[in-house]
Write a structure and sequence with these properties.
Number of helices: 17
Strand order of the largest sheet: 3-4-2-5-6-1-7
Largest sheet: 7 strands, mixed
Strand content: 15-25%
Shape: elongated
CATH topology of the largest domain: Rossmann fold
Structural class: alpha/beta
Number of domains: 3
């Protein structure tokens, strides 16, 4: 990396690259490299400005504290680099490593306006996976003015480093950046240097020999025994292990419902005639909600997303509207999890007199296991026992969903362990249970 990012433009003698994008697993020496390169920039000439930020101002400050401590503890007082710097300043707001030549290395919070009026020769945005599209772009817009005049003033081109381990499907700033670089013609002579380490698409993240072969830090910073220990630590969250040590984006690496089987369960058919169960769920932190219908017809159940939208204020009025049309729509009952984010919705529905189908943790777990079995084990005639009308919210939540183990091998859908809302899938899961547990129809009385 140092060899490439230090390349010079043969025409101007300035650094060739304006921007450096780096994605790599954990434990590769990224922090040491960034500090070493920052030292190089600071010692290149007087008055250089090196800045560092991460997912928050507190994280950036803590990062600086760790570097300052290591600086004083590891380097002997007569070390050439130690003698080239002053004592680190540790007070919040003025934290800095300062060289005798007037150059500084400082942390800053990742906000649009913090560096306004300041100058920069190197800026590092660490843990880039954390930032949303809006936040990340605001950071870049705030940084751009700090770099404008440095090449002319100091005779050297400034650089922005954007670095991180791969994030989640919600890393809406970093993910498109990586996808663009991976699809780029790398012979185009662009001014962005791109470094990408990690598992390949077809690699098995549970094969530790493969993980080790793709990890730049293996044998240098840790051995197989350490890797095995880390895999054991993450045994209940294998997708997070693949992200941390294989640099694989989560949301697709540890699917509960295999992609091929999930896609095979899609159907263009309309919901069959019959009594309908309606499931409803609210996403974690109330980011969205979903209402899903399910109908059993013979040996199979078909589900369809009726409504999915951001927020939660709309969902109870919509359920009440459906209840008023229950006879017309042949709705036999409503299924809502009484625990977790949907608890308030279940309480509202119960107090409003909606016919609720009993749904507890055991039922939620059983239904999820049933769906998995029904889409992976075809019936005797080759068809599937569970079918879904395609919907983007269902696809997204199926991609995000992870398992949460509740007892002796039993599992349910893990809301907090998933990397985004899985409300649509939870609603489908509840509706599926409801379709098999509708109350008996009360026969109409006939008067003669």
């Amino acid at each position: 990396m140092a060899d490439v990012v230090g390349e010079l433009d043969p025409e101007t003698g300035e650094l060739y690259y304006d921007r450096v994008i780096v994605t790599m697993p954990r434990q590769v020496g990224k922090t040491d490299f960034d500090l070493s390169h920052g030292l190089s920039v600071g010692l290149h000439g007087p008055g250089r400005r090196v800045w560092y930020t991460a997912q928050s101002g507190q994280h950036a400050s803590d990062h600086f504290t760790g570097i300052a401590n290591e600086w004083e503890e590891v380097m002997s007082p007569d070390h050439v680099l130690r003698r080239a710097t002053r004592k680190p300043r540790r007070s919040n707001g003025s934290q800095a490593l300062t060289w005798l030549n007037g150059s500084t290395w400082r942390p800053f919070p990742p906000t649009e306006n913090w560096l306004h009026g300041k100058q920069a020769d190197k800026i590092t945005v660490d843990e880039a996976w954390w930032h949303s599209y809006a936040t990340g772009n605001a950071i870049l817009q705030g940084l751009a003015p700090t770099l404008l005049t440095r090449a002319k003033a100091l005779g050297q081109r400034p650089q922005i480093y954007i670095q991180s381990t791969e994030g989640t499907i919600e890393s809406t700033w970093f993910n498109p950046m990586l996808d663009e670089q991976r699809g780029r013609d790398l012979t185009d002579g662009g001014r962005t240097a791109f470094f990408d380490w990690g598992l390949l698409e077809d690699d098995d993240p549970t094969d530790l020999r493969v993980v080790a072969s793709r990890h730049p830090g293996y044998r240098h910073l840790f051995d197989m025994r350490t890797l095995e220990a880390m895999a054991d630590t993450f045994r209940d969250a294998p997708a997070e292990f693949a992200r941390a040590f294989g640099n694989r984006r989560t949301g697709s690496a540890d699917r509960v419902f295999p992609l091929d089987a999930w896609n095979a369960s899609k159907t263009a058919e309309l919901l069959p005639e019959g009594r309908m169960a309606v499931g409803a769920a609210i996403g974690v932190d109330g980011v969205d909600a979903a209402i899903v219908a399910a109908v059993r017809q013979g040996a199979r159940i078909v589900v369809e997303v009726m409504y999915h939208a951001p927020g939660v204020s709309w969902v109870f009025p919509k359920l009440r509207e459906l209840h008023e049309r229950a006879t017309e729509l042949k709705i036999g009952g409503f299924a809502i999890d009484k625990y977790g984010p949907s608890a308030t919705l279940a309480d509202q529905a119960e107090r409003a007199g909606l016919p609720l189908i009993p749904l507890n943790t055991g039922a939620v777990a059983s239904s999820a296991a049933n769906i998995l079995s029904w889409i992976t084990e075809p019936l005797a005639d080759g068809t599937l026992a569970w079918k879904q009308r395609p919907h983007a919210a269902l696809d997204t939540s199926a991609e995000l969903a992870t398992r949460r183990f509740v007892q002796d091998g039993a599992w349910t859908l893990g809301r907090r362990l998933s990397v985004g809302s899985i409300a649509a899938l939870e609603a489908a899961n509840a509706a599926t249970w409801g379709a098999d547990h509708l109350p008996d129809e009360v026969p109409k009385l006939q008067l003669f």
